[in-house]
Amino acid sequence: MKKVLITLQDLFNLQTARIYNPDAVKNISNVSIDSRTIKKKSLYIAIKGNKFDGHSFVNDAVNKGASAVLINEKMLSKFDKLELPIITVKDTSIALGQLANVWRNKLSAKVIGITGSNGKTTTKEITTLLLSEKYKVVSTVANNNNHIGVPLTLFSANEKTEVVVLELGTNHFGEIPYTAAIAQPDFSIITNIGYSHIEFLKTPAGVKKEKQVLFDETAKRNGIVIINSDDKLLKPLIKKYRNSITYGFSEKNTVSGEVKGYTNDGRTILEIKLKKEKINVELPIYGLTNARNILASVAIAYSLGLSKTNIIKGIGKLKPIKQRLVLKQLKDMVLIDDTYNANPASMQSAFELMSKINLYNKKIAILGDMFELGEKSLQLHKGLAAGIKKNGIGMVFTIGKMMKHLSDTLQKSEIIVQHFSNRNKLVKFLEECDLSNSVVLVKGSRGMKMEDFLQVIINRESN
Q: How many CB atoms lie within 10 A of CB 7?
């Protein structure tokens, strides 16, 4: 098995690169942007971030054994006395991506790219778990899915890796084209098209245009695109891509799902249809959106040759991802932790889950603002009212400038609603209000730090 290495020629091929002391360059087996993780035969790349400038740690990297460093050409005078190869470029972040693409093309592993407005991290985790039943898998850690995270994930794979699962995120035009070109996937999924990051991508059509580039890059390699046929914006793409497979809750799919019911605590009882085979499972994770994420992951797993037994075993190992529809049974309540982030689609999904939990009749939602919705923000916040009413949520407590509009909309209904103008008032209310015999949802966008309010509830119930 040939070891994956960065060679002197690879470094010379970098755009704008100049190499000082090239005769001392040895083949590189590790690439790092963190001086704390330097190993022997490592290339240290100094990246200037929002909080730290990697050039401040070049000497640390050298002292820990880096065999070469890659720096911005404007910084050369600070390091020209180093007695090891120095590569200078105009932009070290771009060089990181270029080298990651070189590394990717030296890997024998299949590469899977996953993006979408909702569910991409969960789908990435499910896919990784399923494929690990048969293959040696490397995948994106947490949600490190940007122009830095995608290259670093590729560098974490080596000649022994059989599958790389990459999450690709975006909130501005051009980000998916950049990371997809680096990744060059053999398989790709767009989980759905919605209003996430609509502030910068303007419309769902804009979101689709940005994310569809992932499919285009996959098609260039004659790879397989996996299409959610339940998504009205994605379904038309089935005819566009020759190598496509589909999944969803309709009958005419490569991988089809049918909800057979729900457990008392709201878990989905799902039947998965794979050509002539059927799989019947009680899902360990919650929500119809997660059932669809599982179908997406099964579509990949099936395409990569996993057996029915492999898939059942993998699904059985699934666990909720932190702060994403995690249920906590407290004394006399079910607390739903969905505090990681929020957009209209994930809000509706959480409301639907509440209606499926039959352990308690009283349903309470504690909601914070949804961010990055642009000019649609007012309309989309007010629009949550329909899902709240439809799913029998009897109490709604809100915080945030935009959630005030939802609160005002609900005042006209029979739902008990109260808006809080600051965090301290909501904390005090949650410490004292009666939440017994209820299903309680806590949800909002990342910047709202809704986990703080979740912890208030946990603390009071623990006393």
A: 14
